[in-house]
Amino acid sequence: MSPIEIAILSGAAFCTSALTAVVGAGGGTALIAIMLQVMSPAAAIPVHGAVQLASNTTRVWLLWQHMSWPIIFRFAAALPLGAWLGLALFQGLPTAVIQIMIGCFVLISLGARQIGKWRESDVPLWAFVPIGFVTGALNMVVGVIAPVLGVLIIRKDLSKEAIVGTLGFFGFLGNLLKIAGFAMVGFSFTAYGPTMLCMIPAAVIGTRVGRAVLSKMDETYFLIAFRAVLVVLALKLIVVDGLSQLIG
Length: 248
Description:
Number of strands: 0
Distance between the termini: 27 Å
Number of domains: 1
Helix content: over 70%
Radius of gyration: 17 Å
Strand content: under 5%
């Protein structure tokens, strides 16, 4: 890759990591969209995983005391099995169709949670076991599924720091397994060493900047911004990543 391309991707890693640290989601999806402009999907998804692992690890470190461990333990239980299944079976499925389905799920879930009894209901804790399984599988195919997790983790008993921190741990686990999976099937991360050596520090610094902004944000405004980001990401998955590919 050229120095200009590496510089652009490093700047993108900084900005998108800061965004994710503030509102909990959105940065990873934006970053992979930018990476796909200069890299093939076969390279962008694993390299994106390495960069996001650094960003997520930093977020986990900064928000460790706010984690929702009951959710995390259940989520992690079936995640490795899902990642294995996704790597073994789902790589040949049309990504565009999966992205449309994810985007529709996010919009339907956000809408349903504003209607009647769903407005006050939270996802039961036991449900995070199958959620972890499905997440592990889809993460190997689409690369980013934070919009789905973002909808499911909105709970009355979680603060903004707990939402962002727990999503960060989800990302940490998912990207760790993604890197291991792609390494097992022979992807050479060293071939993109210079790119990752520039993007990873930028992502770490961006996360620290975003964490400082999060601490000053009002809870109400955070949830409004969080839901707005999820809607934008869902529409992007449906229209830009899904329908445009199928029609094109």
